[in-house]
Give the backbone structure.
Amino acid sequence: MATRSEAIEQLKSEVIAAQQAFRTAIQAYRKAAGSVPAFVRGKNAPPLRPEALTDCRVFSNRRHMMQALAQGRVGAEVGVREGNFARFMLDNLDLEKLHLFELEPKQIEQGVLDDPRTELHGGDSSDNLSKLSGVAFDWIYIDGDHSYQGAKRDAEAAGPLLRPGGILFFNDYLHWSPYEVKPYGVPAVVHELVQQGFDMV
């Protein structure tokens, strides 16, 4: 019987072999079709308005970004998982209320749920956001369904809940996830918001 480390090494070898097979298939497609397989990337992101990037800043990680930009006392995290990032925000931001939107709330650390500043909304995030009334958010951090349709639903439900000057944060601004081996739609959703008048910060 294989040890845990041997089993992990075997799985590592299988992942590397699958990556090579994927690369080979991509190359074969390009040769046969004469073009890149754009279908693996998902929806194309429209071009950004140059003036929308005037005040855009780059941060070394999302923690620094949130500490610099997540001003205001009412925030939300869409897609909480175990609650590690929620714990960071509770410990490092001046929060009065942090709304947590999670499809499977049972996985969230109990200490996060027990914090009197948190309010849990279990189930579909876009549905739960759409049901809120009388809540104005200073910012909403979106890290839920990363497909184009999923991110778009969350953005459309979250946008109207922002106070003037509020911020939508999007995690995983990627066309492709190498770990899930599937396309992400976050860039397309973000660029569409910029086309509608949002600016990048």
